[in-house]
Design goal:
Length: about 190
């Protein structure tokens, strides 16, 4: 294994574990991927992101051909984003509690400073069952040039960035803002 790939595995495993430890993901929900040498490395179906190792990944080419292991059922969603923008090198998809909870509520977030800034760039996608062709089609049809983060109604969030750390930061900030929004609405 080359050093660059080894480093990407280590960063991905660290990021997944941090998401798990911060309570943004639980159990075997969510998935994480990165690109290396024109291939997508994505968590295998049923992986616990809090306990990954290099054997926890499947590999596909950018056309969706599975090269190794069974990928997450939502790998097509990752490929749609990668194929839409060559700057995307890493993607995180979570079923984070507060972001998902507020997605049930007509996309209404309280005007926290970060959400006000981010809301202009958040794209909401109507509900379709996880892993379904309808969901993949809706994501693909919703991709916009200046948008890298999508709220999936009643499902979660997916974020594509140039680095895993950038995606991690965005997911964490949006989840924190969603929590704050939810707690503020409970007081009123």
């Amino acid at each position: 294994m080359d050093e660059e790939l080894k480093s990407k595995y280590e960063e991905t495993i660290w990021t997944a574990k941090a998401l798990f430890q911060h309570g943004i993901i639980t159990g075997t929900t969510g998935n994480i991927s990165f690109l290396h040498n024109e291939k997508m490395y994505i968590t295998k179906s049923g992986s616990c992101l809090g306990k990954l190792d290099k054997d926890s990944f499947a590999i596909t080419d950018l056309n969706g051909n599975i090269l190794f292991n069974k990928p997450s059922k939502e790998y097509i969603m990752h490929l749609a984003l990668y194929n839409s923008n060559e700057t995307y090198k890493a993607i995180i998809h979570t079923h984070s509690f507060y972001t998902t909870l507020l997605s049930y509520n007509n996309h209404s977030y309280i005007d926290t400073p970060y959400m006000k800034l981010k809301n202009e760039r958040l794209k909401y996608i109507d509900y379709y069952p996880p892993g379904s062709k309808e969901l993949f089609s809706a994501v693909e049809n919703s991709i916009e040039e200046n948008n890298d983060t999508y709220i999936l109604e009643k499902h979660g969030i997916i974020c594509a960035k140039d680095t895993l750390l950038s995606a991690f930061g965005a997911i964490e900030e949006i989840e924190y803002s969603a929590k704050l929004s939810f707690l503020l609405t409970q007081e009123n």
